[in-house]
Amino acid sequence: MGLSSAPNSFDSLDDKWYIRLNYRYERNEPAVKARPLIIAHRGASGHAPENTMAAFRLAVEMGADWIELDIHQTADGHLVVLHDFTLERTAGDRRPIQTLTLKQIKKFDVGLWWDKAYRGARVPTLDDVLTFARNRIRVQIELKRGSSLYPGIEVRLIETITRHEAERWTAVSSFEIEGLKTLRRLDDKMSLGLLTRKTRPREVLEEAVSLKVQSIHISTRRLSKTLLTQAHSVGLPVYAYTVNRPSLMSRYLTMGADGLFTNYPDRLHHLMNRHPS
């Protein structure tokens, strides 16, 4: 798809903006996928404690294309996989993650809050997950905060991905624009995704273009047919979160979403097998 295929809805945008959008084609990267992607949100977190190895293993077994996870940085510079900025919800400890060492964090049980069957589950490191995921599944990494909270985290993240030779099967997303800017400055070829709370399609796309991201990730509350149409016209896939009910999965797939984040990858896999595109 070239510039000449852009729809009339973009006629108001100037030529320079179109040229900036065209960087994707110069990089010869795939854009919109033929089949929507199943993205296991914090793993198969509807069936197992979120962001644990158990949840990631289940996601693979349930046919997910990607696992999504969240990373923070410990006091001693390790990248750990959990959603919140403390362990209060999952392990009862209120101290911020950046004040704890990896050794301290590894002492906490993050499975028992979910079910006694998961007693003994520990917070994995990003190294743990990438070692597991290699040749099994792709990994979508959400950077919860950049160097403003976790000094040097962007450099450590790139080093970790490189050490695992995972550049082709990982992507990094974030709501934090400065973190994404830093990653893009450090690595012009890294696959990035824009997590956004904006609702106006032009604002979303301008931000995506300025950061040279490869995808847009947006809440179903903000997803619109206009955004999908305009993003697709410039080759950007749009992934919607978080969709757990089969009826809503059908709705957003019919709308044209390129992938769905879900806590139940088995439900989405079943739905897509019943109604292949």
Mean of the pLDDT scores?
90
Which blocks of ≥5 consecutive residues have pLDDT under 50?
1-30
| Total number of helices | 12
SSE arrangement, N to C: HHEHEEEHEHHEHEHEHEHEHEH
Number of structurally distinct domains: 1
The strand line-up of the biggest sheet is: 1-2-6-7-8-9-10-11
Query: Biggest β-sheet: count, sense, barrel?
Result: 8 strands, parallel, barrel
Summarize the structure.
The chain has helices at 15-21, 23-26, 53-61, 88-91, 102-105, 126-133, 153-163, 177-186, 201-211, 225-233, 246-255, 265-274; strands at 37-41, 66-73, 79-81, 86-87, 93-96, 138-143, 170-174, 192-196, 215-219, 238-241, 259-262. It has 277 residues and is α/β, with parallel strands linked by helices.
Describe the SSE topology.
Elements: H1 15-21, H2 23-26, E1 37-41, H3 53-61, E2 66-73, E3 79-81, E4 86-87, H4 88-91, E5 93-96, H5 102-105, H6 126-133, E6 138-143, H7 153-163, E7 170-174, H8 177-186, E8 192-196, H9 201-211, E9 215-219, H10 225-233, E10 238-241, H11 246-255, E11 259-262, H12 265-274
Parallel strand pairs: 1-2, 1-11, 2-6, 6-7, 7-8, 8-9, 9-10, 10-11
Antiparallel strand pairs: 2-3, 4-5
